[in-house]
Amino acid sequence: MKIEVIILIAVPIISVLSLIFVPKSKAFQAQFVFLFVGLPTWILGLTAVQLGLIEYPFRELSTVNRTSFIFEYLVLPIMSIHFNVRFPERSSKVVTIMYYLGIALGFTVIEYFVEKYTLILKYTGWQLYWTFISICFIFWLSRKSTQWFFKGI
User: Fold this and answer.
1) Residue 84 neighbours by CB under 8 Å, 6+ apart
2) What global pTM score does this model have?
3) pLDDT tens for the chain, residues 1 to 153
4) Which of 4, 12, 100, 109 could make a disulfide contact with 58, Cβ separation 3.0–4.6 Å?
5) Is residue 107 in a domain?
6) Percent composition of the chain: helix, strand, coil (DSSP 3-state, to 5)
7) 80 near 37, Cβ under 8 Å?
8) Which residues pair with 55 in a beta bridge?
9) Could you give the CA distance from residue 9 to residue 138 in angstroms, rounded to a whole number?
10) Within the chain, how many helices (H) and strands (E) appear?
11) How many Cβ atoms from other residues are within 10 Å of residue 143's Cβ?
12) Residue 17 domain-assigned (yes or no)
């Protein structure tokens, strides 16, 4: 079996199974984050593909969508759930910034290896630092919207 097939099967399974680690008390927050993050990732993902910055030569639902359905609509929203439900609320600015940067860096490193060693992703004008910036932006946007939405609850 090709490595791409293994990745495209394993990643969604692992992502969905990771939801068992979301505390039940944060289930409503997790639902909000999942639904909210789908919109900006959809816009950013489609824009990058339409501008010819990224290609997904080996992807799921290839006749329907030119982006990576698994990453845009499942993996990043689920990782945003984990980012938000475990956010260090009462920590210093340094810890908060390190939290953002550390998780975004982890994603960026994984994407580097996926782009370099598989056919799942191909940069045709995209730069790795844009991945880092866009993930930081998505996490920041999801965090701020979650804080706003749950402010009175």
Assistant:
1) 29, 30, 33, 142, 143, 146
2) 0.90
3) 688 889 989 999 999 999 999 999 999 999 999 999 999 998 998 899 989 999 888 767 767 677 788 888 899 999 999 999 999 989 999 999 999 999 999 999 999 999 999 988 999 999 999 999 999 999 999 999 999 999 865
4) 4
5) yes
6) 70, 5, 25
7) yes
8) 122
9) 24
10) 6, 2
11) 18
12) no
How many distinct structural domains can be found in the chain? 1
CA distance 129 to 101: 12
Q: Please state, as a whole number, how many other Cβ atoms lie within 10 Å of the Cβ of residue 45.
A: 22
Q: Are 134 and 111 in contact (CB under 8 A)?
A: no
Beta carbons within 10 angstroms of residue 81's beta carbon: 26
Residue 145 is assigned to a structural domain of this protein = yes
Domain that holds residue 81: 33-149
Strands (E), the chain: 54-55, 122-123
